């Protein structure tokens, strides 16, 4: 079990659940916490967990936190530099990456270089620069333990599998989100409030919208390809409304392994901290006699074109993935600000992907540039006169 952690994005959904898990486990110290703008929540967490470093996204938020805390034993930093500092503190052996979006990339790379174990929730990092991240982790001998429930399930199904050639395919399960089964006409009318009502999970707003468009599953397909070094053809998606089977692995002999559990992110979070051990977790036990029937079907990629687009980008590789991710982050932010409709997300992301010049084997700088250009393309398309 790890002994000392930094949590990047501690005030968010995964961050708060990580602290809950830590408070139930004995012997894990929190060295650093980071947040975006949630000063009050961060101050509360600092008073409870006494990190030696607290980081906010901006200088203003950092100043507000310093004023609120008034505690000289806690250093306060801000911005990307602060995140990198939190990710690389000497005494830390595990960094939970629970920030949302591309902002997690550089701190994750820094943590890998510093040989920290990564409890990886921030999937955007692997979508944008998965090849660089995985190569660097291998080179530095840093462990990456997925926190995303599907990828944690696959990780668990693969425990004891010494040869990846024995894997025939991965079956990523997907709840289908709040709009499963709706007709296209209905989908054109859905609102932000509808999209934020996920049937099985309570998560941050960006990923909740991604679940409604199924872009989340598209990002997860790419995440799985990078984590497990599999081609697109070996990563399939199955709609499973009950979110009890968190994903499956089919082996070459036809055996299928699955991981089941109550839908609660604290289980995969805890495993990232205790692996290779398991210990009691404060999660409702799964009672299969109380579950409704477990059902599976194929996703409808015509009604949910973001999943098809993500598969296209996964096939292309290169800068197509960071361009898609950056455009999606920007489009979801516009949707959450009530500036565009639900289907505009797909339209704007596709347009942006088509506009950004394609590079097959991009450097980190080229990845960051593809991200920037894609965001700009979405902003320009949304308000061409600005
Ligand atoms: P939330 O929106 O709940 O939390 C995001 C965290 O990042 C908050 O602490 C937020 O701070 C911080 N943050 C936001 N913007 C910035 C910024 N510019 N700079 C620094 N910090 C920032 O997201 P989730 O916890 O839902 O998701 C986090 C990551 O985990 C995502 O990549 C998501 O895809 C992934 N994930 C989440 C799951 C879930 O169940 N929630 C499941 C699987 C994966 P503040 O709020 O203080 O501004
Ligand atoms: Mg997931």
Question: What is the structure about, briefly put?
Answer:
Helices cover 47% and strands 14% of the residues.
Layout of helices and strands, plus pairs?
Layout (H helix, E strand, L loop, with lengths): L3 E5 L4 H12 L4 E6 L4 H11 L3 E4 L2 H11 L5 E4 H10 L5 E4 L7 H9 L3 E4 L2 H18 L3 E3 L2 H9 L9 E8 L9 H4 L4 H4 L9 H9 L1 H14 L6 E5 L5 E7 L4 E5 L5 H9 L30 H12 L3 H17 L5 H14 L8 H19 L4
Parallel strand pairs: 1-2, 1-5, 2-3, 3-4, 5-6, 6-7, 8-9
Antiparallel strand pairs: 8-10, 10-11
Helix pairs in contact: 2-3, 4-5, 5-6, 6-11, 6-14, 10-14, 11-13, 13-15, 14-15, 14-16, 15-16
The structure holds NADPH dihydro-nicotinamide-adenine-dinucleotide phosphate (NDP) and magnesium ion.
Features:
alpha/beta, Rossmann fold, 2 domains, 7-stranded parallel beta sheet, 4-stranded mixed beta sheet, 14% strand, globular, binds NADPH dihydro-nicotinamide-adenine-dinucleotide phosphate, binds magnesium ion
Describe the structure.
The chain is an alpha/beta fold. It folds into two domains: 4-146, Rossmann fold (3-Layer(aba) Sandwich); 163-261 and 288-316, no CATH class. 47% of the residues lie in helices and 14% in strands. It has a seven-stranded parallel β-sheet, sandwiched between helices. A four-stranded mixed β-sheet has the order 9-8-10-11, with helices on one face. α3 links the parallel β3 (53-56) and β4 (75-78). α2 (39-49) packs across α3. The longest helix has 19 residues, at 364-382. The structure holds NADPH dihydro-nicotinamide-adenine-dinucleotide phosphate and magnesium ion.
């Amino acid at each position: 079990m790890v002994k000392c952690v930094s949590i990047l994005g501690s005030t968010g959904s995964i961050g708060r659940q990580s602290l809950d898990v830590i408070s139930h486990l004995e012997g894990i110290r929190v060295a650093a916490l980071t947040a975006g703008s949630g000063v009050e929540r961060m101050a509360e967490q600092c008073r409870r967990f006494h990190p030696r470093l607290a980081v906010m996204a901006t200088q203003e938020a950092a100043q507000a936190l310093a004023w609120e805390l008034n505690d000289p034993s806690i250093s306060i930093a801000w911005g990307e530099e602060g995140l990198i500092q939190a990710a690389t503190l000497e005494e830390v052996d595990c960094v939970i990456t629970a920030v949302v979006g591309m902002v997690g990339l550089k701190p994750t790379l820094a943590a890998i270089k510093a040989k920290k174990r990564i409890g990886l929730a921030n999937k955007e990092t692997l979508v944008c620069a998965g090849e660089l991240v995985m190569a660097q982790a291998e080179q530095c001998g840093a462990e990456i333990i997925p926190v995303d429930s599907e990828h944690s399930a696959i990780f668990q199904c693969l425990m004891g599998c010494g040869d990846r050639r024995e894997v025939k395919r991965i079956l990523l399960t997907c709840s289908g989100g709040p709009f499963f089964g709706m007709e296209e006409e209905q989908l054109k009318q859905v609102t932000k409030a509808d999209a934020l009502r996920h049937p099985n999970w309570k998560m941050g707003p960006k990923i909740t919208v991604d679940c409604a468009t199924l872009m989340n599953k598209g990002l997860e397909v790419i995440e799985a390809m990078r984590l497990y070094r599999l081609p697109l053809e070996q990563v399939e998606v199955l709609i499973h409304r009950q979110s009890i089977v968190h994903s499956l692995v089919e082996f070459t002999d036809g055996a299928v392994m699955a991981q089941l559990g109550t839908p609660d992110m604290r289980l995969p979070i805890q495993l990232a901290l205790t692996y290779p051990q398991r210990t009691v977790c404060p999660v409702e036990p799964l009672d299969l006699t109380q579950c409704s029937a477990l059902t599976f079907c194929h996703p409808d990629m015509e009604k949910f074109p973001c999943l098809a687009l993500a598969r296209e980008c996964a096939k292309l590789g290169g800068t197509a993935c960071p361009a898609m991710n950056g455009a999606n982050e920007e489009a979801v932010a516009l949707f959450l600000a009530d500036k565009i409709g639900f289907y505009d997300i797909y339209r704007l992301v596709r347009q942006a992907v088509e506009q950004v010049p394609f590079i097959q084997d991009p450097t980190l700088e080229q990845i960051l540039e593809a991200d920037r250009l894609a965001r700009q393309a979405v902003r320009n398309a949304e308000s061409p006169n600005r």
